[in-house]
């Protein structure tokens, strides 16, 4: 059994053991092809919930701040499950290249449009990165709403919406503002579903 499957299996058990873990819309995730799972981000538990929801469905390549790789044994595990390190203050060309390479090879990338964890109520403004990677990597974007209070034994709902294609923009010359707008469009879907299913 692949080490990745072992890790995500443990995360799935953790999620179901300590939370009322529910996944809605898993059928909206293509079994193959380049995709980006775009989710809201309010807690360090979000990457765990995202990976747990995809266990045995798609192998998610995540992007994490490089400082986490210095923590043992966490750094070892992150390397083994193909997490891409990123310097959030100064993203390097190699980081961008690695993400695009994964997408162009038909991979699945987990990404947070807001760019960082939002500790306050509501949502932050989306960053341009999601739109840029979706267009340049020719990937479908899957909006994922993580709906929970993050309190132990409370409900966690992972709502997965239908794929969004940016194919119309593949041959367009886009700037940062354009990419940010595309990212924000995805975030609006995430927000809408969040509020709808949080009731």
TrEMBL record:
The keyword Cytoplasm does not apply. The keyword Transferase applies. Its EC number is 2.3.1.51. It catalyses: a 1-acyl-sn-glycero-3-phosphate + an acyl-CoA = a 1,2-diacyl-sn-glycero-3-phosphate + CoA. Keywords: Acyltransferase, Lipid biosynthesis, Lipid metabolism, Phospholipid biosynthesis, Phospholipid metabolism, Transferase. InterPro entries: AGP_acyltrans (IPR004552), Plipid/glycerol_acylTrfase (IPR002123). It comes from the Bacteria. Residues 35-149 form the Phospholipid/glycerol acyltransferase domain. GO terms for molecular function: acyltransferase activity. It holds the Pfam family Acyltransferase. Coiled coil: none annotated. Belongs to the 1-acyl-sn-glycerol-3-phosphate acyltransferase family. The HXXXXD motif is essential for acyltransferase activity and may constitute the binding site for the phosphate moiety of the glycerol-3-phosphate. This is 1-acyl-sn-glycerol-3-phosphate acyltransferase. It comes from Paeniclostridium hominis.
């Amino acid at each position: 059994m692949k080490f990745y499957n072992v890790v995500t299996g443990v995360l799935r058990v953790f999620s179901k053991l300590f939370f009322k873990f529910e996944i809605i819309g898993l059928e909206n995730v293509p079994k193959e092809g380049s995709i980006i799972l775009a989710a809201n981000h309010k807690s360090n538990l979000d990457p765990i919930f995202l990976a747990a929801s995809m266990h045995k469905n798609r192998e998610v390549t995540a992007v994490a701040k490089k400082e986490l790789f210095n923590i043992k044994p966490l750094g070892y595990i992150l390397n083994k499950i193909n997490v891409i390190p990123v310097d959030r203050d100064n993203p390097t060309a190699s980081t961008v290249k690695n993400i695009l390479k994964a997408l162009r090879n038909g991979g699945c990338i987990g990404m947070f449009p807001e760019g960082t964890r939002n500790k306050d109520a509501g949502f932050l403004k989306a960053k341009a990165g999601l739109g840029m990677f979706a267009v340049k990597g020719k990937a479908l974007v899957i909006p994922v709403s993580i709906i929970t209070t993050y309190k132990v034994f409370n409900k966690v709902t992972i709502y997965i919406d239908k794929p969004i294609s940016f194919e119309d923009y593949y041959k367009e010359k886009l700037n940062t503002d354009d990419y940010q707008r595309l990212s924000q469009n995805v975030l609006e879907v995430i927000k809408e579903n969040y509020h709808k299913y949080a009731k």
